[in-house]
Design goal:
The chain is an alpha+beta fold. The protein is built from five helices and nine strands. It starts with 20 loop residues before the first strand and ends in a 5-residue tail after the last helix.
Length: 219
Amino acid sequence: MTKSLRSGTGPNWTGFLLLGLTLASLGAGCGMFDIRPPTPPGIGGSCVSHAASPASAESVLFNFAQSFRCQEAALAQFGETLAETFHLDLDDVDVSELKESGILGLDSLSKTQTVDGQRLRSIEFSDSMVFEFGIPSQSGRTDLTAYFLDTPYLLRIGQSQGDSLIVTQTIAGTSDLYLAEGQASQWFITRWVDQRGDSTSLGRWYADKVGSSQAPQTP
């Protein structure tokens, strides 16, 4: 399986919102990535899907990010953003480190493994989560597919305090995202190619949780 060659070159996030980038609240079928001024990392907002059947690639990415707000309660919404054939390709450095820790043969995560990773992490962290996508360096689309390359992402985990989040852990990196339109004009993420940055990547965050039970072990 061909992977990105940009392993280990993720963005250097400093502070809560270095880039001030987020997905806008999208109108059905017409959403775009948006640049906004830096704002406090508020944790308000509903975890309810923006659209039950996302009608654009941007809408499904909005739903993916929004599902982190309600954690385990939004697992169904999280899973609905991923195609049945979805796979998350781990960063090559993460694959190497997993092998060193005794987890062999794990270089990508299926939809089932990714959803299970989200479930286990949601149970582990009872505090608040806020996930955001930044602006991709390159994007393109056809009538039925779309891609967003070198897309920064940032997951902040912490304790809520009023309308702010006191961050205790960050998960960050960049990803190459590939999406496709399925039946009934619903869009799904089909592939996520992970590239770790200076902190733990999302793929590694999931793999550390599910890998020990679903990958071969060294003797």
